[in-house]
Amino acid sequence: MPPDLLSHGFIHIDLLCAIQVVLLGFTGGVLSGFIGSGGAFFMTPGMMNLGVAGPVAVGSNITHKFGKAIIGSKKHGELGHVDRKLALFMLITAAVGIRLAVWMMKLMSGTEKGHGGPAADLYISVVFVSVLSVVSFTMLRDVLRSDNGENSQPSRRVVDFLNRLRLRPLVHFPVADVRVSLWVILACGLLTGYLAGTIGVGGFIGVPAMIYVFGVAAPVAAGSELFLAIFMGAFGAINYGFEGMVDLRLVLLLYLGSLMGIHIGAYGTKVVREVVIRLATGGMIALCVLSRAVAMAVYLRQLGWVTYDPELDDVINLVSKGILYASGGGTATLILVLVFRAYLQRRRVRASIALSRPAPLVAAQPASKEV
């Protein structure tokens, strides 16, 4: 690759690096199909651990998310789980949030066409740790408080409170069957777009907002967020691409892995109990947060805010990568084992049914007469 591209934040990709990116995509795809999230909370820090500049990792990931969202939205649309009107209303301010995130990324990079640096990487990591710590804690708490993790209903405290306020104008969404204040929708859209543009993770805000703030059913929330993600991904890809912060090599390698993994993860939702899904998701996000928190020490040293031997940077990065790979690899392996076990069990059941069926009766043929 030409040196000028390498100097602008695009890493050299050899065979080992390419394999790791494909595995990141595969693991992210398995998780995406399994938990209904894009897996960005794993792939973005994973690319940063490989030496990809933070803004390039986010830009490449949000570009990768665009294609997957089309497939996911189509499947949910066939089931009637997409409220396009709700998604388009949120898009009004989500686009503003993405543009604001790109502007902040350039500001943190410190150059006109910035492609990273310790300030930008620290900024991404701080937002990542802050947001996903809350998400992980909330998920694990809800599972532990529910009846063995099953049959728990989302809280309607915020929904009922906003309904009492009646902040006009109220907008009715027929598919979701809710009436929501326009100002609440615009505020949630702005936050969703900003986080999607900052860390590549918008669904973890958009979906809970639709469920806990708007009162939308979980399947419709997931489908509507995927429809919204098509436009956010496209707009984010254009904005980051215009600033030179999208590495198409990484995007294609992520697709190579994720499009294989997403089908395995989707099958896993049919054979794995919901409590296992939620516990695995919450635990994995917590480990991803820990991994990024460890990596923040390197950025703090590079900015001169802490002092230690620079030779320890490689050790810290290795520990951070080890925690991340252990969380993603462990969760993906658990899913694969459960899916494979369910597949074998299904085959045994089919074989036993086939053996237990009585042999078909064959009508006796009349003896042929000799001439």
**Domain module count:** 1
Give the neighbour order of strands across the main sheet: 1-2
**Cα-atom Rg, whole angstroms?**
24 Å
Percent of residues in helical segments?
over 70%
Helical element count?
Answer: 13
Strand content: under 5%
The major beta sheet can be summarized as: 2 strands, antiparallel
How many β strands by DSSP? 2
What structural category characterises the helix and strand content? Answer: mainly alpha
Give the integer mean of the pLDDT values: 82
Unreliable spans are 1-7
Textual characterization of the structure:
- This protein has one domain (20-345).
- It contains 13 helices and 2 strands, in the order αααααααββαααααα.
- The chain has helices spanning 3-6, 15-35, 40-49, 54-78, 84-109, 118-145, 157-165, 182-199, 203-214, 218-242, 248-271, 274-302, 312-356; strands spanning 170-173, 178-181.
- A hairpin with a 4-residue loop joins strand 1 and strand 2.
- The longest helix has 45 residues, at 312-356.
- The model is unreliable at 1-7 (pLDDT under 50).
What's this, in brief?
This protein is mainly alpha-helical and 371 residues long.
Main attributes of the structure:
two-stranded antiparallel sheet, mainly alpha, 2 strands, 371 residues
Helix-strand layout with pairing:
Blueprint: H1 3-6, H2 15-35, H3 40-49, H4 54-78, H5 84-109, H6 118-145, H7 157-165, E1 170-173, E2 178-181, H8 182-199, H9 203-214, H10 218-242, H11 248-271, H12 274-302, H13 312-356
Antiparallel strand pairs: 1-2
Helix pairs in contact: 2-3, 2-11, 2-13, 3-4, 3-12, 3-13, 4-8, 4-10, 4-11, 5-6, 5-8, 5-10, 6-12, 8-9, 9-10, 11-13, 12-13
